[in-house]
Design a protein that fits this description.
Blueprint (H helix, E strand, L loop, with lengths): L11 H15 L16 E6 L5 H12 L3 E6 L11 H10 L4 E6 L4 H7 L6 E7 L5 H15 L12 E5 L6 H12 L3 E5 L15 E3 L2 H6 L4 E4 L15 H8 L3 H5 L6 E3 L12 H4 L6 H20 L4
Parallel strand pairs: 1-2, 1-3, 3-4, 5-6, 5-8, 6-7, 8-9
């Protein structure tokens, strides 16, 4: 696999290979010197056209643990702000030695375009493109679910689990990537949000869609993944009122207490505490939000290895 662009096209075997590799790489973090020579001599470039903290730092940490050289490109203050195209920017960083380009872009399809345009020969990893997909986020979420619910999980999928994804589904690349990956891995997925924030065509997704969070909570899902409302992406007249949204779609302490004892709470970040999730819930023992961040480094090590490395 030269590229990782989305989860919709990942087979079950692809996904399990990446998760199993990440599981092996997770052990590296526990070493006194948490590094491997696996990608020594390779150069990874973070090509980020949108702001990021977790994803950018996670890819940097992953590349450094595999001994790759790392360059990070930020749009602010760059030639892009002067009108340089994606093609010219990508060719410039490849000319500087990029073997792997990790791209985050505001336009849906940008990663696919870069991978298939013939502009560059580097391997491409999609770190989020518009409202389309964010595959490594979904993979780290799957890794977190597997670690919690599937003992001795090497080679195992997520069959039998019920995952509820709640919030602004229409504008969330995290939701899309998770829906397709979790379905491929055998989980049952319910997406929940105001009707205006459910995507057009959701009936064609491999999910159950609902606008009643309380009813879904009472079904007893194994995991609830909360998403923020992406006000910066919402076009048109609809903007959810904060009070109404909290009342109907926030994971409050009361709602969290009604979940099964083993159920976990997830969030890809950044969180709006007190809006989509109560602080007491985000900081509770059932929260695995910090685990998601930790698993992100191992998963991104696996992604880098998958497009460039050899057998670990």
């Amino acid at each position: 696999m030269r590229h990782i662009l989305d989860t919709k096209d990942l087979t079950r075997e692809d996904a399990l290979r990446l998760l199993d590799t990440a599981q092996e790489f997770a052990d590296v973090a526990n070493r006194s010197v948490p590094k491997l020579p696996t990608l020594r001599g390779a150069t990874m470039v973070n090509l980020f056209f949108e702001d990021s903290t977790r994803t950018r730092l996670s890819f940097e940490a992953a590349a450094k643990r595999l001994s790759a050289d790392v360059m990070t490109f930020q749009v602010q203050g760059s030639s892009v702000s002067k009108g340089e195209s994606l093609k010219d920017t990508a060719q410039t960083v490849e000319a500087m030695g990029a073997d792997i380009i990790v791209i985050r872009h505001f336009s849906s399809g940008a990663a696919h375009r870069l991978a298939h345009s013939g502009w560059v020969e580097a391997s491409i990893i999609n770190a989020g493109d518009g409202t389309h997909e964010h595959p490594t986020q979904a993979l780290l979420d799957a890794a977190t679910l597997r670690n919690r619910f599937v003992p001795h999980s090497r080679g195992a999928d997520l069959s039998g689990l019920h995952v509820a994804i709640v919030g602004d589904i229409a504008h969330s690349r995290v939701a899309r990537s998770n829906v397709f990956l979790l379905n491929t891995l055998g989980a049952r997925v319910t997406v929940v949000g105001p009707p205006e924030l459910l995507p057009t065509g959701v009936e064609d997704w491999p999910v159950t869609a609902s606008s009643e969070l309380d009813a879904v909570v009472d079904e007893g899902p194994d995991a609830v993944m909360m998403l923020r409302v992406q006000r910066e992406r919402i076009k048109g007249d609809f903007q959810p009122a904060s009070g109404d949204y909290v009342r109907n779609y926030s994971l409050t302490v009361d709602r969290a207490n009604r979940l099964p004892e083993r159920a976990i709470v997830m969030h890809p970040g950044p969180m709006n505490r007190g809006v989509e999730i109560a602080s007491d819930v985000a900081d509770s023992p059932r929260s695995v939000i910090v685990d998601q961040v930790r698993n992100g480094v191992a998963v991104r090590m696996a992604a880098l290895f998958d497009v460039w490395g050899e057998t670990p």
